[in-house]
Design goal:
The chain is of the alpha/beta class. The chain contains ten helices and five strands. The protein has two domains: about 120 residues, Rossmann fold (3-Layer(aba) Sandwich), CATH 3.40.50; about 70 residues, Winged helix-like DNA-binding domain superfamily/Winged helix DNA-binding domain (Arc Repressor Mutant, subunit A, Orthogonal Bundle). One of its GO terms (molecular function) is DNA binding.
Length: about 230
């Protein structure tokens, strides 16, 4: 299966570089290029790519607004957004997660890391390290945005006890291997529980599943250090 990628960045030279890199892979192809968020949204609706590689800072409609619009459109449920930016601050990443992004990378990443990241997000996984999960979730869910719509706790009733347990550990930033060791399960079994929970809760990926865990009260953010 070929991973179809849409590039959204206001720097034409950078887009050209990404296109050459991505098109050189047998399992990937670039289906379009956008220079701002509004164009990215239009092209996403036209081409339905698997992934939008989205810059945050763009003129007019920025990447965060475009990400929110893409992730809120039910017709684009199969499209995932990977944020690529020079602004790797916690606030930007938190906003990207709220908007529905599946992960983020800095523009200083190597070519191999970028391609691996695209494949990771295309497979349905979140490109967010356990350490980043711990920090970001704690920081932005301690003080949710005013327009944040919290998931009702009763939505967890569809999960089995084991699925809730695994989801809670994932929300703490534990990797599948760490969860497997804690619960004496195989990593494959943990992955299965994660995917079942995602399906039942309508979560796009692991990042959104973690957010739902905190919004429903399944997990509790630690108080900030004094």
């Amino acid at each position: 299966m070929t991973i179809r990628v849409l590039l959204a960045d206001d720097q034409a030279l950078l887009r050209a570089t990404f296109r050459i890199l991505i098109d050189s892979c047998e399992d990937m192809t670039v289906v379009g290029e956008a220079s701002d968020g509004a164009e990215a949204l239009d092209l996403t609706r036209a081409h339905h790519p698997d992934i939008v590689l989205m810059d945050i800072r763009m003129p007019g409609t920025d990447g965060l607004a475009a990400t929110a619009a893409i992730c809120a459109d039910p017709d684009l449920a199969a499209t995932r957004v990977l944020i690529l930016t020079t602004f790797e601050t916690e606030d930007y990443v938190a906003q990207a997660l709220r908007a529905g992004a599946s992960g983020f990378l800095g523009k200083d990443v190597t070519a191999d890391t970028l391609l691996a990241g695209l494949r990771t997000v295309a497979s349905g996984e979140a490109l967010l390290s356990p350490a980043a999960t711990r920090t970001l979730i704690t920081n932005f869910l301690m003080t949710p945005a005013p327009d944040t719509h919290l998931a009702p706790p009763e939505c967890l009733s569809e999960l089995t006890g084991r699925e809730r347990e695994v989801m809670g550990l994932a929300a703490e930033g534990k990797s599948n291997t760490e969860i497997a060791e804690i619960l004496t399960l195989s990593p494959l079994t943990v992955r299965t529980h994660i995917h079942r929970a995602m399906t039942k809760l309508g979560a796009r990926d692991r990042a959104q599943l973690v957010v739902i865990a905190y919004q429903t009260g399944l997990a509790q953010a630690a108080p900030p250090a004094p």
